[in-house]
Write a structure and sequence with these properties.
With about 500 residues, this protein is α+β, with helices and mostly antiparallel strands. The protein is about 50% helix and about 15% strand. The chain has helices at about 5-35, 45-100, 105-125, 150-155, 160-175, 275-310, 380-390, 400-415, 425-460, 465-490, 495-500, and strands spanning about 130, 130-135, 180-185, 190-195, 205-210, 215-220, 225-230, 240-245, 250-260, 270, 320-325, 335, 360-365, 365-370. β8 and β9 form a beta hairpin. The two termini are about 15 Å apart.
Length: about 500
């Protein structure tokens, strides 16, 4: 009888045991990790889908991280803008108080408030989020604005606002303090007022009178002039003459003189003389005094505002304008300042185009938000400029026109704080940033929904069912135990046992 060897059979059974053991180890790993495989290859035909799902989830995570970073920057910027709004409120309150409380001390307090406001506003415009300056447009690695002291006083080699306002005041007032106007008596019975041919000073807008015996004419000629002739007879008491002027900042002022028999006349009056020529002499003196008063009040305020306009409407690509002097009181025009002789208050990005587009971030596959800001934007510049203008004009307590000058400045600055009508305001900038945050929050909500769906799908492909794996483990354990018992019995088999 032939007896077959069991070596080949036992080797196959041992190999089967090893395979079952490997399967049991893999199922145990799946049960402990919840993952079907440690490699994409182990996912079979679903490996391509798994790779795609992971890529989408990674992209969403990247978008969310970018959005969170941008949201932080916008929140920091909004805090600065809210503080800027508080500065506007405080400035308006100080101006209102100064308007309601007469006296030079009120003007001094307003100027003190303006200096603190300027320092605070420029500090806010140098706000950083991390290592990034927020109000410099594309230039994020350096402060976008100069300090308050440099803006006002310069740095020794570069002129600040105080100096440029002083130069412009000299140019607008002229050597005689009449706003570059010339008063002459063309005849013994007439007064003529002629403009200066320069761009500075007051410009004649109109002349009118209700004086029965007077004749007025102009503005006419080159340079323009107006005249009043009283040669036909003296005016009656209470009749008046009005001359209106255009000022450098686009505002207007006027002088009205009323005829009186009093001598000396009161403010805003001229004395009727014994003859028309005497009346003309008195009218000329009264006009000279009245125009000088306008020069020291309305014109000085308008000159300061215009100098401030020319100083602040500037950046690296648009130099500030300066009076072409010295001498300044006879200057005829303006010249460009340079970075070597004039403070350029804003040193950030000055490229054309919207400030918002200077900082952009992609927060979704097809969505980009713009959140850039420039300190030179109208809504921000008007605040800085208003505070600086008040801070730069010192009103002496001994100046008889000081209170009136303060009121003229307050009126102009109060209207400028929120920007000219129809121009950008601080609130417009805040609205733009709020729109960016709305887009960010909408994308974040959408990403949460997408992530939940993708993760569920990923779990179906890469994950396992604990119940199913547990059942497979029990089945394998049973098979493994049975196979091991059979294998053990086979190894106990011998020829002696077989013959028995």
């Amino acid at each position: 009888m032939t007896v077959s060897s069991i070596n080949g059979t036992s080797a196959a059974m041992i190999q089967s045991l090893v395979g079952l053991r490997s399967q049991l180890d893999d199922l145990s790993r799946q049960l402990s990790t919840g993952q079907k495989s440690t490699t994409f290859a182990g996912l079979g035909s679903q490996r391509g889908v798994a790779v795609s799902l992971r890529s989408q989830l990674s992209a969403i995570s990247g978008f969310d991280a970018t959005a969170a970073n941008v949201n932080t920057r916008i929140n920091v910027a909004n805090t600065a803008l809210t503080s800027m709004a508080d500065i506007v409120t405080n400035m308006k309150a100080a101006i209102a108080q100064s308007t309601n409380v007469s006296g030079i001390n009120a003007a001094s307090q307003t100027q003190s408030t303006a200096k603190y406001s300027l320092d605070g506003a420029l500090g806010l415009l140098n706000t950083q989020a991390g290592d990034r300056y927020l109000f410099g447009g594309k230039v994020t690695d350096q402060p976008p604005v100069e300090s308050a002291d440099t803006v006002l006083n310069g740095d020794g080699t570069r002129a600040g606002l105080v100096q440029t306002i002083s130069e412009r005041k000299q140019a607008d007032l002229g050597a005689n303090g009449l706003g570059r106007l010339n008063l002459t008596n063309s005849t013994i019975d007439s007064v003529e007022i002629t403009e200066d041919a320069s761009t500075f000073g007051m410009k004649l807008a109109s002349i009118s009178t209700d004086m029965t015996n007077a004749v007025v004419s102009g503005p006419a000629g080159a340079p323009p002039s107006v005249s009043v002739n009283v040669g036909s007879g003296n005016p009656n008491e209470g009749e008046s003459l009005t001359v209106r002027f255009n000022l450098p900042d686009g505002t207007t002022s006027s002088v009205t003189l009323t005829a009186t028999t009093n001598s000396p006349p009161g403010a805003g009056q001229f004395t009727i003389g014994a003859s028309p020529s005497d009346t003309t002499t008195n009218l000329t003196a009264a006009l000279t005094t009245a125009i000088q008063t306008v020069g020291n009040t309305s014109l000085t305020a308008a000159s300061a505002v215009q100098a401030s306009n020319e100083f602040f409407n500037a950046d690296a690509n648009h130099p500030p304008l300066r009076v072409d002097g010295p001498p300044f009181d006879t200057a005829t025009g303006l010249v460009n300042g340079t970075s070597a002789n004039t403070v350029i208050w804003y040193t950030g990005d000055a490229d054309p185009g919207s400030a918002r587009t200077t900082a952009s971030a992609q927060i979704d596959t097809s969505m980009t938000v713009n959140y850039g800001m420039r300190a030179s934007e109208q809504g921000l510049r008007s605040i800085v400029q208003s505070a600086a203008t008040l801070a730069a004009v010192t009103i002496s307590s001994s100046d008889p026109n000081g209170v009136a000058l303060s009121q003229e400045l307050n009126t102009r600055v109060s209207g400028q704080l929120s920007g000219p009508p129809g121009t950008q305001t601080l609130q417009d900038i805040q609205t733009d940033l709020a729109g960016a945050q709305v887009s960010i929050n909408a994308a974040k909500t959408r990403h949460q929904q997408q992530t939940s769906t993708l993760q569920e799908y990923q779990s179906q492909i890469e994950g396992v069912s604990n119940e199913e794996v547990g059942a497979q483990i029990l089945t394998l354990q049973t098979r493994l135990e049975a196979s091991m018992q059979v294998t053990a019995r086979m190894y106990q088999t011998s020829l002696v046992n077989y013959l028995q």
